[in-house]
Amino acid sequence: MSKARHFNPSLLLATLLPFAAVSYVVADPAVADAEAGGTGIPIAQIEHPDTVDFAKEIFPMLKANCIACHNASKAKGKLNLEEPKAILKGGSEGPSVIPGNANESLLLILAAHQDDPIMPPDGNKSNAVPLTPEELGLLKLWIDQGAKGEAAAFVEAPEIWYPVKGAKQPIYNLAMAPDGRSAVAGRGNQIHLYDLARGVPDGLLEDPELIKEAHFETAHAAHRDLVQSLAISPDGKVASGGFREVKIWSHPSQTLLHKVAAMPEAVTTLAADSSGTRAVAGDSAGNVRIWELANPDARQEMKVHDSAVTGALFTADGTHIVTSSTDATIRVRAKEGEPNEIKITTPKAINGLAAVKDGSLLATAHADGVVRIWPVPDSENATASKELKGHSGSVNCLASQAAQLVSGAEDNTARLWNVDEGKELRAFDHGAPVKAVALSPDGKRLVTAGGTVLKIWNMEDGAKLAEIKGDDRMISGVSEAELALNVAKKATEERKKRLDEAAKRLQEEGDKSKAAAAELAKSQAELVRKRVERATADAALQAVEISGNDEEKKKAKEAFDKANSEVASAEEAADRARQNAELGVRLTSRAAEENIQAESDFATAESSAKEAEATLEAAKKASTEAEKAWNCVTFSKDGTAVIAGGDSQQVTTWALDGTPMAHFVGHSAAVNRVLVTGDSIVSAGANKSILHWDATPDWKVERTLGDGKDHKQFADRVTALAFDSTGKFLATGGGSPSRSGELKLWNTTDGTMIFENNEAHSDTIVGIEFSPDGRHIACASTDRFVRIFEVEEGKEIAALEGHTSHVLDVTWRADGLVLASAGGDKVIKLWDFEGRKQLKTEQGFGKEVTSIDFLGASDAFLASSGDASVRINQERLGGPNAYTHRSKADAAGRLIIAGDQNSTLRVWRASDKKLLWMFEPAE
Questions:
Q1: Residue 448, H or E segment
Q2: Residue 402 pLDDT
Q3: Pairing status of strand 436-439 against strand 671-677
Q4: What average pLDDT does range 110-128 have in this prediction?
């Protein structure tokens, strides 16, 4: 999955909170400790009731005046004063402290100005000041007591927290679901939800426990602290990080409110009154039931018709119900169910019923292809006021909204009518017999259902907006399979490229090795020749030594020395040639091994691509087979979603662009009717069942990691979060600023910790992402490194160095072969994971690059920057005009979101870079 990796600028501004005071007594601050020699700053004699606490008493004074120059990242004189272990180790001058002997400890001597160089030095850039006599006395006592203490000094959790005031808080953190259907954004203490399928805000995540605390009663808060990090799992859970805690939020995919008692026969119609408190249903045997939605046991049933009930509704004043039937009658009776009723006999069987013009008229759909308009009957003498003719087949269904009336028929069309004039205004060609129609609450959209297709239409011009087929889960499976195939193809291309490079290296190294071998043979032959020449010269020298004159001896000696020198040179040349030949053999052998590995990797990639192709074909086949007939359809109460049921035995919700959103599974037969009332859905099945669903189930805190106080659980703020692609594991990152980077891996099922590495970095981790195969975790840190760890054991396997400032984010390319990192040095760096080397540096940003993400399976990257830009590669997306803290793409690279300093969340479509929505918090 999708990753969740977050940099919070507030981290760079964070300072340690005041430490708890520990009392001590100054015996005589005007008198220097006699053992200190009486020079420099006086050292007060301290009476201390307990052992000196390094974390609470020594560290604060060192932090204020020493640690700016003597810390893990910037250790002047190689001295780090952040923890007892480092202090005991000392620096370039040796140990800075001798436990139990303060008078001979260099740290005290220099801090008391008893020797040079005095510390802190005069005129230092950190504005550090000398320690006071009391502080020196406390430092001396700590050393004399053994210089003990915890390895780190941690911030104390505040006793009282206050919510952040003001609606327009910067969006420091955000996350998007891997499927792109939803997003979350952190503003102050709040987490805002967004439904990206519909393009609407979707509420807030609120922890009910915080409501019980002072100051948080009406804060709608998710955390006490600022929301430091966010991530969304593949199954829709949200993880949020704060001060020493992580919360995992979830909500059920479906919540069954009531299982209403079964009807005598298959349910054929459903309706609710205008208040949404009562419902009416009819079945295929002519039975009618009225019940209270909140209390389904409060119901009444009656036999009303001689055959199937095809329509039911409450009158506008709510006092009566009207029903229609294939027995060709309309019946009107009081909703309390008194036996007296009005019965109207019509010319033909009735297939549908609708109220028109705010309930002042009725419309009936008939098997003879006619739509008839009626006044609400007040006697059995009522007659149709109009007959709307135009369909060439049985009219199956009706839908109305205010003065609009739409009919659907067996002739494959839906038709819009002017009821007042009795004229057809527009026809919609569905392409199959239309079994159900629905109009949006604002009357601007029409949905038609028939066969295996839903079609959404623009009522103004009749344009088709979307076409929906199949099971949303199967459709998602196809999308995931398509993405997997694209990734596999990308990996295959990359592996082929690397194989070609390996083959080229092997050829080059082989040629070099052959040349080196030839040169070795040549040099060895030359060495033999030179040695023969030297032997000849030696023999000649020996001969003239016996009988030659001085001149002859001299010439023979010169000839021998020359030959000997040439032998030495030939030996050196032969030795170099031998070394080169051996090196050539080694390099060729290594290149051959790399080539074999590259061939294996390419073969594996090809095999994976073929498997991905087969998986996609299987997913497409399964999706096609899951294309079942639609029987009923309606709109959500706000008109932003379509809700449908059919032979798939489930109810499915869709965005108006055809994006699947949710499904409700519980029926064991076809779903015949579906009804929306308030925030709930009522569905009825061919097996006589009626189910009442909560369409907007509440979010809840499923689990909390850490208690917000204990630094042993989390050292400080949790500034980075990421789920793996299965959602089973959660990686958390944080640490103590300028001291340590903390990496932990958790099992999301039971909240157990799998491993922790409290020294993963030397500074805070602000970005995390799992590799696509889930085997590695990459971390970005303000210590300027990207580090990679194995998931199985938490072992570090690589440290990528190259940024000259904080690394603020890191991401993996979909094939897992390349990483990208974003830095405070205004650049993006690309890294070869297997080669552990830098590939490229992308420049051109005006300020920090605050986040980085790859788009789907491509090489294209998405980045945000403090220069008020969101970019695909180097092309800016329109919209941002403020410091942009984070951007994110969905797994397929189709949608992009970004949050900025002005509290604005923007959403773009990646394909054409069109800005779709812009969300700002309500004032």
A1: strand 445-450
A2: 81
A3: unpaired
A4: 84
- Matching residue, tokens 């909240």: 751
Q: Say if residues 800 and 819 touch (Cβ distance below 8 Å).
A: yes
CA distance 9 to 7: 6
Count of positions (residues) in the chain = 923
pLDDT at 152: 53
Dist CA 745 CA 848 (whole Å): 28
State the chain's mean pLDDT as an integer. Answer: 90
| pTM of structure | 0.81
Query: In the predicted model, is pLDDT for residue 780 greater than 70?
Result: yes
Cα separation values, 312 from 161, 321, 487, Å: 56, 7, 52
Q: Beta-carbon neighbour count of residue 25 at 10 Å?
A: 10
pLDDT band at 886 (very low <50, low <70, confident <90, very high): very high
- Mean pLDDT across 648-652: 93
Mean pLDDT, rounded, for 376-386: 85
Q: How far apart are CA 300 and CA 289, in angstroms?
A: 6
| Nearest CA among 839, 793, 845 for reference residue 822 | 845
8 A C-beta contact, residue 325 and residue 341: no
CA neighbours closer than 13 Å in the CB half-sphere of residue 736: 22
Whether residue 35 is predicted with pLDDT greater than 60 in this model: the reply is: no
Spell out a b/e string for 458-489, using b for 16 or more CB atoms within 10 Å of the CB, else e. ebeeeeeebebbbbbbbbebbbbbbbbbbbbb
User: Phi then psi for 461, rounded to 5 degrees?
Assistant: -125, 0
Going by pLDDT thresholds of 50, 70 and 90, the confidence category of residue 16 is: very low
C-alpha to C-alpha distance for 233 and 1, rounded to whole angstroms = 7
State the Cα–Cα distance between residues 46 and 573, nearest whole angstrom.
Answer: 76
Tally of CB atoms within 10 A around 742: 25
**Residues 597-604: contacts with CB within 8 Å, 24+ apart?**
597/502, 598/495, 598/498, 598/499, 598/501, 598/502, 598/503, 599/499, 599/502, 601/495, 601/498, 601/499, 602/492, 602/495, 602/496, 602/498, 602/499, 604/495
Q: Where are the beta strands (DSSP E) in 459-530?
A: 464-469
Cα–Cα distance between 241 and 52 in angstroms, integer? 34
Instruction: Determine the average pLDDT of the residues in 539-556.
Output: 88
Give the E-state strand segments of 569-639 in sequence order: 630-635
Report the alpha-carbon angle 462-468-469, nearest 5.
140
Helix residue ranges, H only, 247-291: none
Q: Are strands 413-418 and 423-429 parallel, antiparallel or unpaired?
A: antiparallel
CB contact set of 478 (below 8 Å; sequence gap of 6+): 616, 619, 620, 623
CA distance 880 to 913: 13
Is the peptide bond prior to 121 cis by the omega test (within 30 degrees of 0)? no
pLDDT at 22 over 70: no
Q: How far is the C-alpha of 804 from the C-alpha of 340, rounded, in Å?
A: 87
Mean pLDDT of 310-323: 92
Residue 34 has pLDDT above 50, yes or no: no
Q: How far apart are CA 552 and CA 529, in angstroms?
A: 24
CA-closest candidate to residue 131, choices 192, 82, 60, 183: 60
Given this model, what pLDDT does residue 376 score?
87
Angle 588-592-597 (CA atoms, 0-180°, nearest 5)? 150
Cα separation, 748 vs 820, whole angstroms: 27
Examine the pLDDT at 230 and tell me if it is beyond 60.
Answer: yes
In the numeric block, which tokens belong to residue 539? 């023999």
Could you tell me the sign of the dihedral formed by the alpha carbons of 52, 54, 55, 60, in that order? positive
- The label of the residue with tokens 């070394």 reads 579
